[in-house]
Design goal:
Blueprint: E1 3-4, H1 7-17, H2 21-30, E2 36-37, E3 49-55, E4 61-69, E5 72-80, H3 83-92
Parallel strand pairs: 1-5
Antiparallel strand pairs: 2-3, 3-4, 4-5
Amino acid sequence: MAVIFSQVIRDKLAAKHSVSEDDVRECFANKAGQYLEDPRADHQTDPPTLWFVSETNSGRRLKVIFVYRDGNIFIKSAYGADENSIRIYERLGK
């Protein structure tokens, strides 16, 4: 299973969110819980959009959003997790 970043996503993560590919990979490695599906109607995809909150090795909490397709993880976004995302993940993801 590979973690795939399109060039557009890679550029957006760096410029807008100051998140690197390594940050995202660290979050997958450090994840403690399950993936959650985004239930919002305007975020419905096929296959479903999934997300989780985890920490980088330096302790930065990120919300990582992705689609799992054809045995690979396609990153859609990743950014600093806000309190609402952390609360939801703590309640439903762990």
